[in-house]
Amino acid sequence: MQKEFAFFPGCVLTQAAIEAKMAIEAIAPILGITLKEITGWSCCGASQAQDVDPLATLVANARNLALAEKMNLPLLTTCSTCLLMLTRAKTQLDNGQKERINTFLAKGNMDYKGTSEVTSLLWLLAQNAEEIKAKVKKPLSNLKVAVFYGCHSVRPQKDLNFESSVNPTSFETVVKALGAQVVPFEKRLDCCGFHAVYPAEKSVMKMTSGIVNSAAESKADCVVTPCPLCQMQLDIYQDDAQATTKSKARVPVIHLSQLVGLALGIDAKKLGLDYNVIDASKLA
Amino acid sequence: MKFIIDRFDGKKSYEQTYTVEKKDIEALTLLGVLLLIKQKQDVTLNFTASCRCAICGACGVRVNGHAYIACDSKMTELFEEYGEADAFRISPLANFKVISDLVVDWEPAMENLRKIKPALVAKAEFSEKEGCRQNQEEFDRIIKQWDCILCGCCASECNKLTADHADYMEPFVFTHAWRAANDSRSKDPMIHAKPAVTNGLWNCVHCQECANRCPKGISSADDIAGLRAMVLKKGLNSGVGPAHAKSFYTDLVEDSGRLNEIRLALRTEGVSTALRAGTAITLMRAGKMNPLEVFGGHTIEGHKDLVKMIEAAKAATKE
Predict the structure, then answer these.
(1) B50-84 confidence digits (pLDDT tens)
(2) Interface contact B303-A46, CB threshold 8 A
(3) Cβ A198–B305 below 8 Å, yes or no?
């Protein structure tokens, strides 16, 4: 397993999902992974900035990738939208845009070469599931988990190029390695609506509520997601979403890194479980 | 192996299972299988298909809840995709009204397509005599979007349409609006872009299903982003959607280089929205947000250089 990474936290990990940063930093040393945060990383554009200026967004991500290259390390992120934005930027750069974009990066004495690969926490864990399994201290055998991939973990498949987008297995592989039970969950590949919570609020609340209710019907103890934006949407907005559809169900929604931490026997406080809005304390 | 097909006879919905020998269908496409079932087992099974070569777009159906065009889906590929499954569920496209079995009603989608005026409204300089020419580069700009065969796969899986049809249109409609608006011969891009705005352009949820399911590799999500950038440049920038997108850009370029959720909420809707104010309070109460960040976060190292790079890119596009 690759042990050292240029870590790209993404904006959400600095504040709204601060517990995801705590959790990934708590699990990394136990898994033997060194995360070196990229100095000066910028917002990836969050699947929004390209609506205003696609070229500026590409330039910002070329710079982010170039910063990782300077560290001679592959880039790792845990946010699926960052993953998609960075992966798409890399594809564009490696397929004809490199020279042009480098003329702009030169203004800050930087240069994109294409030497750092982009990966996610989910992919890294899935590729090393056996190694993870061996490190489990507290198998989660009584925990029923609804795995929620999040759109940008799997779609578009041609951009992410990791696994089938209609029949992915990476997440189940990881959760099973941790000893937890994966419950059948109808909405595991649905969209939480996060990116349109402002302009299409009514639809998004319906989507969020549908996912929570689907997890409740599956008798899941919790929803787990690799994407901190999905976690934020399903957790922070859960009460509002359930109110709009007059649903009573409440299900804790935790980050993949928090679930891994629980299986590694890390204290709930260190995993930031008390930051989760829907009470997740019973999972510890 | 089994094909479980969702059927509808005009009054009631039911599922019907057809059993076929795997060896008999291994060399077929999904359309081949549907034709085989119709010919050998059940003449009443209804579906639409025509060209058999991925040009007409008539044979869109769902396999295990994901849209495909049947004639362009080899059974060997489906076996691989679904891990040697011994049963497939075949259903009509989602987000369309079902007429009979796998046949759906296209009229509401066509009505939406008409809204964005998909036909060319040519510049005044063109005439019947002189023609309406464009050079190769201009044609290449819109060639991908011309590939759309109106199969409906994007619409079937669109999470926004599933949540609510009322304030949105099928993703391919936005692709045709982009194509018409970016046609060098077009008199005014806004003829096509404006109706896209008034019919939900800013309501896309970014689920990427459209880009993922298009059998022609078109990304309606990208075309939606392209239309958004176009209308913002033209000054059509009022409303929550534009304010939301612009706040990300502002944080990236003009502020710290990173996004702040509270500033985002305030910039997008102001303090007037109860739900959003509630969210900010929830975040602060959970201890995740420092309210002082509203007044400007910690600026990233190298931000001045980032701005220089973006300014250079902007200047180059103006040249």
Answers:
(1) 999 999 999 999 999 999 999 999 999 999 999 87
(2) no
(3) no
